[in-house]
Amino acid sequence: MRKERGRGATNNRACTRFNTLHQEVDGDWVDERELVDGEIPRLRTTVTVLHPRTIITRNNSPDIPFTLSINPFSGCEHGCIYCFARPSHAYHDLSPGIDFETRLFAKPGAAALLRKELSKPSYTVAPIAMGTNTDPYQPIERDWHIMRDCVAILAETQHPLLITTKSDRIVRDIDLLAPMAAKGLVSVMVSITSLDPHIAMTLEPRAPAPRRRLAAVKALSEAGIPVVMSISPVIPAITDHEIEALIEAGAEAGASHASFIPLRLPHEVAPLFGAWLDAHYPDRADKVMAIVRSLRGGRDNDPNFYGRMRGSGPWAELIRARFRIACRKNGLNREPMRPLRCDLFKAPAGDQFNLF
Hints:
By secondary structure, the protein is an alpha/beta fold. Helices cover 34% and strands 10% of the residues. It has a domain at 41-263: TIM Barrel (Alpha-Beta Barrel), CATH 3.20.20.70. α8 runs parallel beside α9 and α9 runs parallel beside α13 (314-330).
């Protein structure tokens, strides 16, 4: 299958774990349709509105440092080929491949639902994480403002917030985040996996360039917002040679902490990543997968708690050692991150109070 310009996945195979509506399509007919007039139309992103009943998701995974999260969007236009969230698109009966990048879902009622859930007497305060599944600052946020609306509610109620993103669009919300940071209510993790524009363009085709993400780290840090530099995932023989340079660049931009996770390839991500390797790095595809399997107990992926975040074996130990040395050299991770404050929370007034 041909590579789509500006997209991460090289194919759009349907999921076989949950798919119930998949039909065989005549590939020759599709090719002929797309080649009408000798032009190949670029795929356009579509957005479908979702109307969930609740917006806060709860988890009890022992190796994840949060229990509450919000996902304003399903699917992600950044198109990161390694994204562990790709398999979730199968729940919509869509492919974790190109569909994940082009057929997106938005939850414009998220802020209203958030206000409602925070108003419940039974609500227990804990940091809410955003950006843990798909990026809340992906390109469609520019028009939908769902993330900003949610941040505004959390700022109003003085609720603790954790943000993970690889977009410099977060700088737009510094006016909300800086006052929260001054009260110990927010921490931001900015993901930068490579400083090489070519590698970044193929790995994360629609994410902002590395230099723009570093500029975002600098802007956030200068505004007093704690920033963690994430170099996840570290991809053997593709990005692992940049560990030291990434840590140094993050420290120079103002990050106080750094983190990493070796490449994970759950479910459909493994074959998608394999096809991406064949398309972009055929000279080392076998080598990359051999190292990945050595990190994952001989498999493409290790789904076990804790192990999935750390990897095992000599390669994992080498990556960890290099990471620790680079952080020590550049003054990162000197102290544990301060826990976000939960004692300042003030529940929003219910609708009944608006009558008076």
